[in-house]
Hints:
Blueprint: H1 2-9, E1 13-15, E2 29-33, E3 41-45, H2 72-80, E4 84-90, E5 108-112, E6 122-127, H3 137-150, H4 156-163, E7 165-166, E8 169-174, H5 177-192, E9 198-203, H6 206-214, E10 223-226, E11 229-232, E12 237-239
Antiparallel strand pairs: 1-6, 2-3, 4-8, 4-9, 5-6, 7-8, 10-11, 11-12
Amino acid sequence: xxxxxxxxxxxxxxxxxxxxxxxxxxxxxxxxxxxxxxxxxxxxxxxxxxxxxxxxxxxxxxxxxxxxxxxxxxxxxxxxxxxxxxxxxxxxxxxxxxxxxxxxxxxxxxxxxxxxxxxxxxxxxxxxxxxxxxxxxxxxxxxxxxxxxxxxxxxxxxxxxxxxxxxxxxxxxxxxxxxxxxxxxxxxxxxxxxxxxxxxxxxxxxxxxxxxxxxxxxxxxxxxxxxxxxxxxxxxxxxxxxxxxxxxxxxxxxxxxx
Length: 258
């Protein structure tokens, strides 16, 4: 409920008054707990849910769009090829991209008027922003970011970032401390200019870390996740999480077990 209230205040969703339930589409949703300092509880809106076997889901009706995701091994190699590594992420990236007013009615969802009373009347909300979970959302986000960076190609940092963003993660490297400070300042300003906030900065550059701490954007962890790997910042080592126990071999093995 607090997340939904925050989304309402942040202008990511809006309440629908005098709702016509014969128009648009309603999304089921549930909360998911996650071991994360920034997003411990996440709401998942199920865009793949069908009313019945013969009804299409929202995702069935959407065009996915071409893949614009940068090459993951190339990002990792550039991350390691420089003296100084930097990483950050875009706060609530999808929600900071506006949804066309004519299409918002397809993202309606229901919520309780009083969360302490499950029998209370339901309110209707709809998204003002692009929601995570729709098959077209990754393309829309990448297209928006790429267009913005292309429009600022005269800034060297914009050209760096264009090849080193993976969905909402910025993973890059620079040669010197001076370059790190410049990268931090230019990228922060560049993304702010189109409504994106770069947060959770990590680097082996003391100068960059000092600036990020001053701006309350520093991730004070000794070890952070970088595209599924673990980066130990102080020794500057890439590694992976070790599984301490042997998996149990059973007659039926799933993909998750493997």
